[in-house]
Amino acid sequence: MDSWVVAMMLGASLVLGGIALIAFLWGIKNGQFDDETKMMNQVLYDDEGELNDAANQQRKREELKKKAYKPE
Amino acid sequence: MSKVKCDHCHLEFNDDVMIHDGEYRFCCNGCRGIFHLLKDEGLESFYSKMGDTTLSPPTEQFEASSNFDTPAFSERFVTRTKEGLSQVSLVIEGIHCAACVWLNEKALHKMEGVIEAHINYTNNKARITWDPDTVKLSAIIDMIRAIGYNAFPYDASLQEVRANKERKEYYLRMAVATFATMNMMWIAVAQYAGYFTGITQDIKTILNIAEWFLATPVLFYSGWVFYRGAYYGLKNRLVTMDLLVVTGSSLAYLYSIYITVFEKGEAYFDSVAMIITFVLFGKFLEVLSRKNAADTLDIIGKHIPREVSVVEGDSIRSVDVNEVKVGDVIVIRSGERSAIDGEVISGEGSFDESNLTGESEPIFKRIGDRIISGTTSIDALMHYRATKDFAHSTLSNLVNLLENAMAQKPSIEQLANRLSQHFSSTILFLAIATFWAWYFWPHSFDRSLMVGISVIIIACPCALALATPVATLVGLALGAKRGILFKSAAQIETMASSTMVVLDKTGTITQGRPEVVYSTIHQPFDTGALYTLVSSSKHPISRGVMEYLERTEEGIDSCNIEEAREIPARGMVGRFNGAMIAGGNALFMQELGIDVDTSSDKSLFYYAVNNKLAARYELRDLPKERAYESISLLKNLHLRVVMLTGDHEAAALRVANEVGIDEVYSHLTPEGKAAFIDQAHSEGHVVVMAGDGVNDLLALAASDIAIAMGNGSDIAIEVSDVVLMNDSLTSLAEAFSISRKTYTLIKQNLGISLVYNSITIPLAMMGYVIPLIAAISMSFSSLLVVGNSMRVRWLYK
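Above: the input entities. Below: the C-alpha cells describing the complete assembly.
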C-alpha cells in the first residue's frame, strides 16, 4: 500500500471530523445548549407558526437596519 | 357536585361557582380575560401545548407599569446595544411548563418593536431586546401581565455574565481538546503497533504530521488557560501547576516537531494533548463547582422595596426610594415592607420585626414609635415621617455591610494548591538537573533533552490535578443524597479544617415556634370555642395553643363564635353561647380585671370565660429532635460549640442546658453576632456558623462556612455555603463528617499521585521511559485517583 493512501484517508477523516467539531462549537457559541430543559422541548415547537415567527423577527430586524441608514 | 376544569388555568372547581361564558367555564375574570386575549391574538394553540399542566390564576396586585419607563429604572436595569436598541433582563414569574415559555416568547414577538425575546426555561430569566422608538418597556411588561405572568427586573450584573462566559469558554476548549485527543488515540495505536512490529519512516512521518495537526489547537487553544495562569503566576513570582503543565507540554511539543521534521526517534504529541485535556478537565470541574456570588445580591435586591408612597398635600404618589427626603410623610399599608426609617405620626398596628431582631412576636406600634426599614407591617395602616433617607436607613446599611462582608470573606488556601507549588518547582528542578547530568555524562544534546522532557511528562500533573476535584465531587454527591447541599466544592475542605461551630438558637437549635409544655385548667370550659378563637389568629402563640388542642383533644371541631376580633398586642375576644370569651396575654387579662399568676419564665397564654380565668398555658420554643445527640457528636469531632442568640439570657441558658452547650452568648444584635465571629477569627479559629434568619445574615457572611436551614429565609440560604434541606441538627453533624471524609479522600488521592511519581520519576531520570510508557502511566495514575474516589462512593451508598 502506498503511503499516500494513508495520508489521504487520515486527512479526509480529520477534515470530516473537523467540520463536525466546528458545527458543535458554533452550536455552543450560539447558545443552543444554554438551556437544557428548553432544548429538550424545542422539538415540540417547530411547525409552520414557528417558521413564520422567525421570518417575522428577521423582517423586523431588517426594517430597523433600513431605518438606521435612512438619511435625515 | 361535578368538578369542572377552568378553561384557562385548568384548575378544577365546582360547576356552580364558575363563570359561564358560552361553552367555556372560567374560575375567575382574570382567567377569562387571558383566554379571550389569547384567542384574539391567535395564540390559543397554547392550551393544546400545555397538556396536563395547571397554571396559577392571575393576580391583580401589580405596581404601576409606568415605573418601568422612568429614567431611574432604565439607568439601573436597561442596557443599550450597539445598534441603538434597548435590552433588559427580567425574571418572569408564573412559568410552569415549556408552553408558558412558548406563549411569552410568541406574544412578545408579535409586538411591533420587540426585536428579540429569549426566555430561559430552567431559571425563568428573560432577555428582551426592543426598539425604544417604537415601543415602551411598560407596554412590554403590560403584555406579559395581560397573558397572566408577571415580570420583575434583575440586574444582570457583570459577575453573572462573566461567570456564564467563563463556563462557555471552558466548554469550547474542552470540546476541542476532547475531539483532538480522542482522534489522536487511534493514530497513536498505529504508532505503538509500528514501534513494536516495525514501521517505515514515511508512514511514521505521516502519522506524526497528523498528530502535529491535532495537537496544535489543543496546546494553543485549549491550553491557553494554562499559559495565562503561568504568566500571572510568574508575574507574582509563584511557581504554579500551570507553569509545570505549560513547560512540560510546550517542550514536548517543540521536541516532537523537531523529531517529525528530522525524522528520527519518537514524537510525544499524544502526551501533549493528553496532559492538556486531563488537566483542563480537572480545572473545569473546579469552575463548575465554584459558587456564583452574582445571584446572591440579586435576591437581596428583590427584598428591598424600590418605591414608597409619599403623601403630598392631599394626594399620595409613588416615589423612588432614593428620592425620599428626611421629613417626607410616608404611608405604609398592611403587608408592605418599609424601606425607610421613620417615626409614626398617625395610625397604629403591629409589625413583624423577626427579620432584623429574630423576635418571633409581632411588635405593636403607635404614634411616636420608631419604624425600622426592612420590617413588615402585619395589619398596620399608618403614616410616618422619614427620619433618615434611604441610603442611611437600617436596611441599606445592612445590605452594605453584607456586601462588604461577602467581599472580604476569608478563603483558606486549598491543600492541592499549596502542594502543587512545591511539587512544580521540584519537578522543574529535577528535569533541568537530569538534562545537565545526561549532557555532561556525555550524551548527545537530543538524547539529554528527551530524557529531561520525559521527567516532566511522566511527573504528569494529571493525577494531581484530578485529585481534588474528583474527591470533592464525590463529597458533593454524598451530601446531596442526605439533603446537605454544599454550594461550592472548595468549601468542603474549609469545613473539614474548621475548629469552631457557632449555632443560632431560634430556628436552628430550637424549632422556632412555641409549643405548649404545661397547662393549668382552672374551671371546665368548651375547648371547641377556645380552638375556634385561637385558630382565627396567626400569632405564633395562638398557633402553638391551637396545635396543642389538636394534639390533645380528639375530634375537636370549630364552632360558631360571634363578634370574634383580634386586639393587637393583647389577644382575641369573641362571644360564644352568650358568654364573653377572651384569650391573650397577662396584660390583656389585667385590663379585663382578672388577677393572674404571671410567675413563669415562659410565654403565657390565658383563657377567660365571662371574665373568669378558665385556663393557663405555658409555651416555649423546644429544641429540635435529637439535638442533644447531634451536639455531642459535634463535640466528639473536637469542635468548640457556641450558641449565639438575640434572646434573653434565661431562655438561652435553658435551651443550652438541654442540648448540652456550655458556651452561650445572649442579647446579641445582628452586628454583635458578626463581631463575635470576627473575634473568633482573630483568635485563629476557622468558624462554621449555622443560622436561619435575616438577623443571622451578617454573622453568616462573616464566617468561613455559613450553613443555612432549608426553611430559613431566602437571603440566609443565598448567603450560605451549605444548606441543610431537612433542617435537622443531625444533618449538621453529618455535614461535618462528610466534609472530613472528603478531605481524607483528597489527601489520599494526592498521596497516591505523589507515590506514583516517586516511582516513575527516577525511572524517567535514568532514561527508561519511552512515549508508550509515559502515556500508559499518565492514564493509569489518573484512573487510580478516580477509582479511589469512586470506592468511597460505593462504600457509602
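Note for the figure: DSSP finds 28 helices and 31 strands in chain B.
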